[in-house]
């Protein structure tokens, strides 16, 4: 068996849930999910999204868990460590030699793609995460007080500044670095046990404050009263893509964290619980934003600018009669965003750190330092490409936009698609069942495993292919 007793493990079931949920919970939940919901009709989008999590997200997450725990290595090696089906039909044909070569290279390619995806996302994700830190400072200093034009100008000037965004990018990477250097239990697990409950409490505080505003009921109805007249194929594909993005599938994070799971961890139960926590926080984020937005007459489909341009203006208007409360809510909100960003950055950073640590036999601290330095350099270039320095472009687009497009619209769906093919068609059914049931110690109905295998072999690849083609505007 590939699992080794020497490899670091999470110390408790709570640590498994909070750390992996922290990996999934990030700006995709608190930033991307609300504006996607606003652009796609509210409650109807949420229902479709939850269906996508159930039919696509949980099976794909469980696939990465199975591969990660069985392979018990960093993402670049974990697929190769998963025994392939030597009795595959193609191996019996005249193409046996080609099949054997493909069988060796295919898992290595998926693993390396996961490493590259996680590394690139770490670099540019740190830029947006750094913006959250800046907005904590700006909220505390009272720099976000003003009308809509002022708030818009503030964000534009800040994001195009040559120094401040780079400073905050490096700052949040250094915070992440300090956590990663302390290891799996002492760093990632301990930080997750502190950060995730804090994030949840902050979210609840802002949800209550938002729902008590005058006119908030309209925003609550928008979030929970479906309008299926706005549903079309684009809404379905948008929900599919959001479920994929929100659960961190295809980034290497889930397989890396699962490599630290013990043999006693119930993978199916963990995937369901983590998906529940992730979806709950996404819905609460909508409940935090839309009542406040409707209270002051702001359109719910404000798009990606919702968090950094629209919401400061919402806070200023909504709490105009109680500026002290508005000050606290804004401060809590950007602290919440920063915590969500940090929990995701921890998992993304760990993907590359584990790679350098195990493949090049470096100490964890030295491996983490290499990742932090490289991501800081690339992140600084991504930040500067947004307007501070001309010429930092690829294919005529800012480096930040290129990384966002390549990872989000190409690497993630391709990685998820290949993982489904790998587990569904190339890994022996017996091995998958053994991991699924913890070698028979976890009892489940046989139809649950059969359904899971059917989804991974047929439904998930087709759904992911649809996402991919839709994002490339082929369909």
Q: What does this protein look like?
A:
With 475 residues, the chain is mainly α. 74% of the residues lie in helices and 1% in strands. A two-stranded antiparallel ribbon has the order 1-2. β1 and β2 form a beta hairpin. α9 runs antiparallel to α12. The two termini are 43 Å apart.
Helix and strand pattern: HHHHHHHHHHHHHHHEEHHH
Q: How many beta-strand runs?
A: 2
Mean pLDDT, as a whole number?
Answer: 86
Number of helical stretches of at least 4 residues:
18
What structural category arises from helix and sheet content? mainly alpha
Radius of gyration: 22 Å
> What portion of residues is helical?
over 70%
Main sheet attributes: strand count, strand direction, barrel closure: 2 strands, antiparallel
Given as residue ranges, the uncertain stretches (5+ residues, pLDDT < 50) are 1-5, 86-91
Overall 3D geometry? globular
């Amino acid at each position: 068996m590939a699992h080794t007793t020497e490899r670091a493990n999470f110390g408790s079931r709570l640590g498994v849930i909070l750390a992996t949920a922290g990996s999934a919970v990030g700006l995709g939940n608190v930033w991307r999910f609300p504006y996607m919901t606003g652009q796609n009709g509210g409650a109807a989008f949420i229902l479709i999204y939850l269906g996508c999590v159930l039919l696509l997200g949980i099976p794909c997450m469980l696939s990465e868990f199975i591969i990660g725990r069985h392979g018990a290595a960093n993402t670049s090696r974990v697929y190769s460590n998963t025994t392939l089906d030597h009795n595959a039909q193609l191996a019996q044909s005249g193409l046996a030699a080609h099949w054997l070569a493909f069988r060796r290279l295919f898992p290595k390619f998926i693993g390396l793609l996961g490493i590259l995806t996680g590394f690139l996302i770490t670099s540019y994700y740190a830029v947006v995460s750094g913006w959250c830190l800046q907005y904590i400072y700006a909220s505390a200093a009272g720099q976000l007080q003003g009308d809509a034009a002022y708030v818009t100008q503030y964000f534009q000037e800040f994001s195009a500044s040559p120094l401040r965004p780079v400073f905050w990018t490096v700052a949040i990477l250094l915070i992440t670095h300090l956590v990663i250097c302390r290891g799996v239990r002492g760093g990632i697990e301990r930080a997750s046990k502190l950060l995730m409950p804090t994030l949840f409490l902050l979210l609840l505080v802002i949800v209550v404050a938002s729902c008590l505003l005058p006119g908030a009921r309209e925003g609550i109805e928008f979030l929970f009263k479906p309008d299926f007249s706005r549903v079309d194929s684009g809404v379905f594909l948008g929900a599919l893509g959001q479920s994929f993005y929100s659960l961190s599938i295809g980034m290497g994070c889930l397989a890396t964290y699962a490599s630290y799971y013990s043999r006693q961890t119930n993978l199916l139960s963990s995937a369901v619980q983590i998906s529940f926590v992730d979806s709950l926080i996404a819905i609460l984020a909508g409940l935090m934003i839309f009542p406040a937005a409707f209270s002051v007459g702001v359109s719910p489909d404000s798009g990606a600018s919702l968090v950094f341009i629209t919401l400061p203006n919402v806070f200023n208007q909504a709490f105009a009669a109680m500026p002290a409360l508005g000050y606290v809510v804004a401060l809590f909100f950007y602290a919440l965003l920063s915590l969500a960003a940090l929990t995701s950055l921890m998992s993304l950073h760990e993907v590359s750190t584990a790679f350098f640590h195990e493949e090049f036999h470096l100490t964890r601290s030295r491996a983490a330092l290499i990742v932090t330095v490289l991501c800081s350099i690339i992140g600084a270039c991504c930040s500067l490409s947004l307007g501070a320095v001309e010429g930092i472009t690829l294919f005529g687009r800012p480096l930040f936009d290129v990384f966002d497009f390549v990872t989000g619209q190409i690497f993630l769906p391709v990685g998820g698609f290949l993982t489904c093919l790998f587990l569904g068609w190339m890994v022996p059914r017996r091995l998958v069942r053994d991991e699924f049931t913890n070698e028979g110690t976890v009892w489940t109905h046989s139809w649950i495993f059969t359904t899971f295998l059917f989804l991974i072999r047929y439904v998930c690849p087709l759904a992911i292919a649809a996402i991919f083609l839709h994002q490339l505007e082929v369909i």
